Amino acid sequence: MSKKKKSDKPEHSGVPDIESARGISGVESARDWFRARDIEEIECLVPDQGGVARGKIMPVSKFLASPVMNLPLSIFYQCITGEYPAYDGLVDAVEADTDMFMQPDWSTLTSVPWAMDPTAQVIHDAMTRDGRPVEQAPRQVLRRIRELYRKKGWQPVVAPEIEFYLVEPNTDPDYPLKPPIGRSGRPELGRQGYSISAVNEFDALFEDIYKYSEHQGLEIDTLIHEDGVAQMEINLRHGDPLELADQVFLFKRTIREASLQHKIYATFMAKPMSGEPGSALHIHQSIVDAESGQNIFSDPETGGPTPLFFSFLAGQQKYLPAIMCMLAPYVNSYRRLTRDSMAPINVQWGYDNRTAGLRVPPSGPDARRVENRVPSSDANPYLAIAASLAAGYLGMTEELEATAPIESDAKNRDFELPQSLLEAVTEMDESEAIRQVMGSSFVTAYAAIKRQEYETFMKVISPWEREHLLLNV
Question: Per the database record, which ranges form the GS catalytic domain (predicted)?
């Protein structure tokens, strides 16, 4: 179902009355764009390895005087905890603290509709002093994969689906999360999958999310209530991988900000609550011929699947374990991937089989696609999309053969995917094929970050340990 409406701005929302478009041609157009909207401040954003928005906020006058800003290279080595791994073997410590140059991607310029004063935001690309892209930057990793497809005359198309939970504000991490109070004055207790009334409990919040999205040029396809308590899913329109990764990056920010205005937390943790389903970032993928626009997964004469379609599937099957730490990037991510759940633990594929890691949805030949159901919602969208497309690319270029489609329930099969973060990092680190397509320097840096995050996690004693080990061992 779609909840999208063209209603007027809610009185409690901070959305400006002026209609906003996303993207312009260059700095000269920017001057007119800022002037038309009376914008005096701009947020200069850079997605880091965790998908966190880093950067600077500055007056528009200063930004226009020199739109290329500087940031230390170390932001691409920062863990989600704020710590850094040892630079040995990665980059010289002095170099890590030197500046790189951030160039605005003018196609991403848009408003910040929740800001108190008229404010703009623009996503930047990271460049070295001599003008080369920084290989560790997630946007560049995705660009690298997209370029591999371009050289083959192919153009990937993706459509992400983002699941998330709404929860009560939680300022003490020792306490479990709880569902928020809706407009009825009561929290949601039972599961309400696809319930309209359960979504309507948070109508005011979703009105703001839709309005904020419109003003940023972000296209929501559908909104649904997922299986978990106060778990929602937003589906995006299909399009270019980099553009859709940008949209997911901005959507996450938008949903969090809108929720905070309603005194609710929106969380993209993979498994925020025990006993509830995890949250996924499903990625629908198809490939078209760059010249004709024909879906290369379908034969133009018969409409049936092509050898490239099965090779793409086979590449995903073979390389899912090696890219797992980009699809499930945190310790918590692996709590989602359990037996007897709708989160896959396998590399099987099937026609309209949601228990398989790879699902082929019902469609006509033009829309034939592969849905990767493995990624969790905590994944960096740039890296998850890049890694998934990289696996499919390798399958096609290596002319791999897929297994037969699975028709049975795959929820309780043996694990075919890494069961822990460290296992997944090792799989990636040792895959020469993944290093080659995604960049060896990126793989080395990303592996170091993930290992550092795991070491930090291991310093924390969990309630389970106190419950079962304190007096029993």
Answer: 138-473
